[in-house]
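Session log. Operator J.P. requested a structure for one protein chain; no other inputs attached. Running the standard single-chain path with token output.
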Amino acid sequence: KIKTLVGCNMELSEATIQLLKNFASINSNIVIKQGNVLKTISEAKNVLASGVMLEDMPRDFGIYDLNQFLNVLGLVDVPRLKFEDNFVTIGDSTGRTTIQYFYSDMDMLTSPSKDIAMPSVDVKFLLDNETLNKIKRAASALDHTALAISNSNGVVRLSVVDPENTTSNTFSIDVDGEIPNEDFNLIVNISNLKMLPGNYEVELSSSFISHFTNVENKTQYWIALEKTSTFGA
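Structure written below.
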């Protein structure tokens, strides 16, 4: 892990840049806290994400346009950051290029106010990267927006559906998991599945909240289920 103090240069890792790019797809602004834990929440407050950076950030600071900040990082070969009171200086490996990027007022930005306490888990399964990609491709091919997670004879069925049209074409794939002995139909908006590539441990609650944990890097996503979800009788 890279330790960094205010006023010292820090080389930003590719893994952290990829995490920032992923979080930019959830919310275009971000508050980065001191330490190595990075969090974001969507404007609609229905997706919260948390990941661990390789670096320790030396201070709290806000970025209003995260995509712009990432584009600025792309102007140099290896981003080297030096944090000052009101801005961060971004340099390259030669020391000849510098960019001054000012922090944004954190009170104007959207950030998680507290962590989510996951309620009791009723459904668990492993969602591998290949299956996740199949679901997204099927959603694009069928022009559907919903992933229905249901009990199919004791296994977890993942179906890409149009919840407003029971006669629409569907794509389904079954996976092993832990499920209760009752019917359920838990709906996830596929547009909210903005996750890093990888395999995920998935937990769902009858309280209509889902939790996706990346098996490799432990990045976590909490996604609210749609109101059309049902559980039990």
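Operator note: Residues 129-142 form the longest helix (14 residues).
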